[in-house]
Amino acid sequence: MSLWVDKYRPKSLETLSHNERLTHLLQSLAVEPRDLPHLLFYGPNGAGKKTRCMSLLNSIFGSNVYKLKIDVRQFTTPSNRKLELNVVSSPSHLELTPSDMGNNDRIVIQELLKEVAQMEQVDFQTGPAAETGGLAHRYKCVIINEADSLTRDAQAALRRTMEKYSRNIRFILLCESMSNIIAPIKSRCLLVRTPAPSAQETVEILSKVAKNERVSVENDSILHAISENCGGNLRKAILTLESMALNNEMALKITSPLIRPDWVVVILKMANRVIKDRTVSSIVECRSILYDLLAHCIPAKVIIQELAFALVQGVPKDEHKKGVIYWASIFDERLCLGNKPIYHLEGFIARVMCELES
Amino acid sequence: MKRTLSSLSSQINEMRGTVSPKDNDTVAVKRQNLSLERSAFKRPQAAEEWCAKYGPVHSTDLVLHKRKLRDVRDLLEPMIRGESSCRILLLTGPAGCSKSSCIKLLAEELVTQYRWKSASTFSVSSNSGDPCCIEYDGSNFPLGVSKGDHFDQFLMESRYRTGSNLAVLLIEDLPNIFNLSTRTQFQQSLLRWLCNGEPHLPPLVISLSECELQAGDNSNNTFGIDTQFIAETVLGFEVLAHPGLQRIKFNPINKTLLKKHLNDISIREQQSFTPRKWEHRGEFVSSVVEHCGDIRSATGALQLWATSSLPIFSKNHTREQSISLFQSLGRVMYGSSDITDDNQMVNDLMLSNGLNMNDVFKLGLLENYSAFNKHDFPLRSAAEITGSLSLSDTMSVEFSAKSLAEATEYPLRAVRDTFSRNKKDERSSHNKSYFPRDSKVRKMCRNFEVDVDKFSYTTMKRYGCWYSFRNVALYFSYFAPFIRKRRNFKKKSLQHYISSLDSPSDREALIAANSDIFECDEQVDILSRVGGDLSLVTAGQDAFGERDLKSRYTSSKTLVLQRVVAQNFTFNEVSTGELTEVNVADELLDPIINSDDEDDGISFEDEDDDTFYDMLASQSPRKPTTNSTRN
Amino acid sequence: MSEGFFAKRQKTAPKQASNIDDSKPWVEKYRPKKLEDVAAQDHTVTVLQKTLKSANLPHMLFYGPPGTGKTSTILALTKELYGPTLVKSRVLELNASDERGIAIVRDKIKSFARLTVSKPSTSDLEKYPCPPYKIIILDEADSMTSDAQSALRRTMENYSNVTRFCLICNYVTRIIDPLASRCSKFRFKRLDSTNALSRLQYVSSQESLQYEDNVLEKILDISEGDLRRAIMLLQSSSKIVKHLEPPVISNLTVDELAGTVPSDLISTLTSKIAGMDFSDIMKFVADLERSGWSGSAVVNQLHEYYINNEQLTSKFKNKLSWLIFDTDSKLTNGGNEHIQLANLAISVADLYRKGM
């Protein structure tokens, strides 16, 4: 069987778990699919943006939205570099992840979407479309994952495309932070906030999964610990649950150790090191660790975030807490402005060590 | 520029030799004649360039250290005799240090000697006009032949240059190796040459002028052919590591030798000196020698100065000797011993072309600043340096030449300033400097991407789920293999247990109850952490050692996808398809049963231990019986 | 003969329109058709109406904040000048930010400007002034490159006998001086609330919407004088509640759609900040983050709260506005919301600690 996180992923609007208000909203959108506006889902990672968006599509187009297939598309940039991109699609939708395309996302967005737009959706006899009467919705949905990582250029192009092809493309943008989305796009979309499940909701979902998978849970407190550790990221929580269950012969005890992804552990250790061992050679050590994290494609922004909050947790003095978060905010911004993350990560570590000396 | 210079001079040399029999060669010669005529027309008074005029005619004339010459001769002679296992002789070094001249002269001396010997046995005459040294001419090839093919063809044609028409093959001009496919083809041709089973092959000499290149595209500053035109990047490590290849490194020409040579020329050209220059030649020669290890450039500069109306104390016009990355790093960190004024030193550095690779230089600073006084300097300084580097990185976002220069200058001055305030510990010698790890990390990133592609395609084909790259990198790359590995492990232990059962119905029931476990297939599922375990990325030059890096990194998404699809077909045939179908239904009906496994504190690391499975098998896994009783 | 043909076309046109009408954005649907319909820009409107009579139009530069009716004004003006049929051949509207390179100015604009004026039909001449020039509208002119702008300068001069330009922009400072000096400038001021409110009321009565008290005021509040945004917000909220029983637009819906943070959350945050317990603040910020609230919205609302707070000293506000500006800029540059918000909250709490 596939991973529990996929197995227990709700597939239709009716089965969505937390956040009923949002479910109602989506249901009301699904009633009149012809009128579907462009949507912008925003909320933290693992809160269920994608799940909700797919459920919505499911109720509009029918279950063939889950018949995914993958294509590798090639694009040629103006500088004549070949670019390969995974395009996931079903008969009625298309998925793009701009972070795969780097700085060339504008070209990809323009070319790909032009192509999609030019293909009129003629197949409207099957599925619920037929019931709502003939010309129901002749559009294709384009899901853009991580829309906040689109460059400004690409966003401007997208804005134009939204107007130009609004007849046969509907966009669903998914993002974690709305601050990076330009205002014209925001104003053209229906903003859908997707909050992460609360701690209680997470525990309920976890215990449901555990029950279905015949995992014995000694005490709910272990589930609470998982939920606490994952901070509302349901994906992470269920993956953790499954790993722990399999690691402990399907019986979770209070004493079972939490399983965290290795990179998180590495960052926590590094935070510890920064606090305890404040020397130049320690910075050098940290650099090696940072390089390895980067080599494993852990986004630098995630590294700095995890590191900063681990440090804030770890230092006792309020003065230091303030210093850590202040420098984190500075280097976090520089990460976005610059193009080599290692400078900023190391700069942050050096600064924090300095700060803790005082 | 350097390349055209060197090829020009080699062509001139060739000119002085005999006219070659090959048709295309004569065409080339004609062209050279034309170009020479044209230059003569331009400068009637200076009919010949001094460096050609006073070029060496015998190996003893070479402005080269005697020992180096002997080294080359010792390697080349057995190759010419056909007694050496060495198939390729590689000469590397900066431009203008007599690599090619050395080979040509030696070839002339040695080849005639040995050719004559072998030719006498067959009593074939008339080959005395044959050139002793055949050069590959990369610019001269028929249309419709790809450059890589052309090189291959050249090797094929020349391979019988043994025995009576023996010649040294000199490769100075390269095909367009900046193109990846041409480069691969080039390297493969060389490999084939190295591995060729034929006992006698003509000696092949590659003369490679190494240099750091200025990369135009900021984003491409990896340690690769685009920035470092050196043997490692041009030939590839496979060729370099081959035992059939011998490498000799040349240094810039020794100052005393060069000075002597220049003085000799000046004496012989005394009459062409413009008035008053002759008296000051000594000063000029020493200033040229100080700044230049390139004989061609030095001679040219002398000629220009002596015969033109340039002021006597003009700045010399030699090719500026580029400061290598590590030299400039050292200067920024420790200051220069020659130039005591830091400001002046930084200005000079900024002007020199070594810094044009902004990113590599800045990354180099980051990599090496900590080596100052063996890590023994205040944290504040480290914070200042990294802070300045980080700030400069944000400055270089706008791609204008000026902002790029400013973005380099800022951290450079910041580092120098910081370290000039820290007293240098005299006891600690300079530590080893490292090339920045960034390029290595980028290669690893690409490999990781390929691994993720493989993982994603597999998951997609097998389970119909698609994860975004970010989610794979953050969560699935760790969790999914972890979970599957444990499933696979359980599966093995269950299989062991099942094989000990007698009744087939029991077996089926047990399989049914644990269908999810049995779905895991170690042949298809990826069971180790995607991209490999986390460890440290260390500094150092071992980027060439990681061979598998290269091969994986070149595979494209399309290729990975095809491979995964092919793999999955085989899986579908092997898998127990009907089992899963039954079980999906079963699972829905199943009430929740308690797995009665007890925590036994067994570590799961030693997996292939049979006794361990036996022990596990004795414990009861999820039993179908409990299931039915509950029902 | 020709009249009959046109009459036929006019008949069929509304039918098609009504088909599209449902999905047509209200912003387009309720765009003022006549100059006198343009809300709250009295001065500009009177000046332009005079030009209608004299049929002599200068080059124009409209500037002002978004959603104040700049585009609507010029569109209405052209309609009144030429009538619906002639508009197509006489007016060129370029309104995208992306196709504005110098090439466009050279080719598209120039070739249109160069065209001789087409002859109006007699019926049009009776109803409309039909002045003998064409109008080129360049929307969002401030996003044109300065190259393109200087190229435009020549074009404007060369073809001024047959062409009038209307540049529309938000920031007049981004138009190069030589260009601005050739145009008569019209400043569009931010809509005052009474005018905007009456427009919103008109729209909602036309669409027969039901809404809670103060919803329209709230929409205006959120959209900060931008009428386009207000109408779009109104439309999307009506879409959401359409299938509810009863279909009443509530304050909550509007809040949710606009992405604004409920005021009780903001007041909890401010009281926690005033409480100066760093760990407590961090925890609350994490919760905010977890609920998915947009960081920039939180920052904006904090700004509003603090600036309007009477009890704070001006020194405090001074420092605070810097902090808020700093955070806002970092967020716009792509900063991580959680880190930036935490930094802001902690820094403000630190201000309290320092006793300001």
From TrEMBL, chain A:
SUPFAM superfamilies: P-loop containing nucleoside triphosphate hydrolases (SSF52540), post-AAA+ oligomerization domain-like (SSF48019). The keyword Cell inner membrane does not apply. It comes from the Eukaryota. One of its GO terms (cellular component) is Rad17 RFC-like complex. Keywords: DNA replication. One of its GO terms (molecular function) is DNA binding. SMART domains: AAA. The keyword Nucleus does not apply. GO terms for biological process: DNA repair; leading strand elongation; sister chromatid cohesion. Residues 35-196 form the AAA+ ATPase domain. This is LADA_0D02124g1_1. It comes from Lachancea dasiensis.
Automatic annotation (TrEMBL), chain B:
Residues 1-13, 617-631 have a biased composition (Polar residues). It holds the Pfam family RAD24_helical. GO terms for molecular function: ATP binding; chromatin binding; DNA clamp loader activity. InterPro entries: Checkpoint_prot_Rad17_Rad24, P-loop_NTPase, RAD24-like_helical. The keyword DNA damage applies. Residues 1-24, 592-631 are annotated as: Disordered. Residues 320-444 form the Checkpoint protein RAD24-like helical bundle domain. One of its GO terms (biological process) is DNA damage checkpoint signaling. Keywords: ATP-binding, Cell cycle, DNA damage, Nucleotide-binding, Nucleus. GO terms for cellular component: nucleus; Rad17 RFC-like complex. It is found in: Nucleus. Residues 595-612 have a biased composition (Acidic residues). It comes from the Eukaryota. Belongs to the rad17/RAD24 family. This is LADA_0F03862g1_1.
From TrEMBL, chain C:
One of its GO terms (molecular function) is chromatin binding. Residues 56-192 form the AAA+ ATPase domain. Residues 1-23 are annotated as: Disordered. It holds the Pfam family RCF1-5-like_lid. The keyword Transferase does not apply. Signal peptide: none annotated. PANTHER family: REPLICATION FACTOR C / DNA POLYMERASE III GAMMA-TAU SUBUNIT, REPLICATION FACTOR C SUBUNIT 4. This is Replication factor C subunit 2. It comes from Lachancea dasiensis. The lineage of its organism: Eukaryota, Fungi, Dikarya, Ascomycota, Saccharomycotina.
